[in-house]
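Think of the structure tokens as a kind of shorthand, similar to the way a musician reads notation: each symbol stands for something richer, in this case the local conformation of the backbone. In the example below we present two proteins back to back. Begin with the first one, reading the sequence and then the tokens, and try to describe in your own words what changes along the chain.
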Amino acid sequence: MQNPPVPEPSSPYPAGGYDAYPSAPAAGAPAQPYAPSAPAAGAPPQSYAPSAPAAGAPAQPYAPAAYGQPTPPPYASAQSQGAGFFKALFDFSFSNFITLSFAKFVYIAFIALSVLFWLFIVISGFSQDVTVGFIALLFGWIPAFIYIILIRLSLEVSVALIRTAQNTSELVSQGK
């Protein structure tokens, strides 16, 4: 005896399968604008797409909203770059700052002096005794290293204060 044919199970979904995103257009189909509610009878459908510019009007490039935030001024202002080193050095009104252009040189000079100080301590230690020389060689770099750190921190504070003064004077001159 032969079994009767088994019917295919029925599915509540369409023949194409389950549509996880029913509002998404099919591949290749034009996208539809989002509409929160159905338009009233007889009213044209409302589109949320941006409108095209009027005929003859220039196209406006996209510009992000500023959210009320001003753009920060550059760190090195034209005021400190415009004056030469000697002009800024002899500026008795202190309107030009030389620290920004001079800080790199000062830092390198202090590093060189710290290394020379350490070498002087090591050579002096070996001239007295070998044990003192080895102790100076092993531990003499610590005061020089601390000195370099303190000089770096001092220069960073000076540069930060000058940049704050420059930015504040630019804001005052802009009337903000």
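Once you have a description of the first chain, move to the second and do the same.
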Amino acid sequence: MARKKKERLDFSQMGELRQNPFADLAQSLGVAPANAAPAGDEPNVNSSSATHKPQPALLIRKEKRAKGKVVTCVYHLLDPHSYLKKLKTRFGTGGTIQDDVMELRGDHCEPIKDFFRAEGFKVR
């Protein structure tokens, strides 16, 4: 059976949407639009450092799994998801996060220590 070709809608002649359809509703409720910031209220770039929690020293160990396979484990990392993809790409290996512990396949202890020291972490 042949597939039907999907019909595409042509929006090129419509131009831009220049009016917010909910602007009148926002005014009647007394609510400021979501994209407008109050005057003089600029976000403070340095405010994130005040809420930053101190990072404990990272513990990086080499562990053996079933059938003699070696994995490198990184303990005490507060947000392991943000670094997992970077490390997997850099070392060309697989990895996962289990119980807040980042595990990378293979023996990568020293390169991982160097990576986190360059990022500003204390490493044991």
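Compare your description with these statements about the second chain. Helices lie at 23-29, 80-91, 109-118.
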